Amino acid sequence: MNLYLVQHAEAVSAQQHPKRPLSERGLADAVKMAAFLFNADVIVDEIVHSGKIRAEETANVLSKTVWFGKATVEMSGLGPNDSTDHLLHSAQTAGGNLMVVGHMPYMSRMAARCLTGDESGLDIAFEPGTVMCLQRTEDGWALSWMQRPGMLADV
Amino acid sequence: MRLYLVRHGKAEFGSEDADRHLSPRGRADVEAMASYLAAQEISVSRVVHSTLARARETAEILAAKLAPGTMAKELDGIEPWGNVKAFASLTEKWTEDTVVCGHEPFMGQALSYLVTGNPHAELVDVKTGSVMALARNIHNPSWQMRWMVLPRIVRGPKRGED
Q: Is there a cis peptide before residue B24, judged by omega within 30 degrees of 0?
């Protein structure tokens, strides 16, 4: 089972739009990442997002290439400073691959907790649009790869 | 500075302790990875490798693309069962971007040790030809995990080939 932790792509500022949808660049980055995931043969069984528009938009773009379902699902408890307990439990018991689109610092806390058992056990450089693939192993989690939009060619 | 930890490409079949060379697939993987990294405008000042042929060959391919005009150099102590702590203290002295080509379990343990202080944290599943990028700077002297790519995701799925 793979867990894909995704930070939403770049959003506009609150001054530009109070709900902070993806910026033009954020949308382009999400599209690049979707193309990359397609080429990497990534298929997931479920995509969840935090419910914030920038996370939902990112999830919807990625879902086009990695998922066969119809609508991405909002999951509560994925706010920037929420507890990682709920997601960790879901991921540990999930039968199939799960992609989660959320926010910093939640994503780096969750990644560090999976890998080291401690939310601050590891300094991980997420940037908007980054996808991290963690593999569930017999005795925990292992980092499989981590890709950021800046490392991808334009589509 | 940036530190790129690389596991050698897929090697020819042979006994575990033999000094094996890269297989054709391993060579193609490393060449694809080198082109990919060069396309991201990644360049380094130094490329080092273990004393074993498969790591040296990997380093030479990467050096040609990422460190033009620089020769890959042999570094003692990063063989599969090398001393991770000794390697970590060596990296303390480095200030220029460096590629290190080695083996499992050494590279995975080195990554775990550099970012968590525990060589046995088993953070990563390091496939052959994978590259792990770490960064540190004067404001943040401890290593930060930046990205990790492996040949399969750079080259795309096999789709029937080999």
A: no
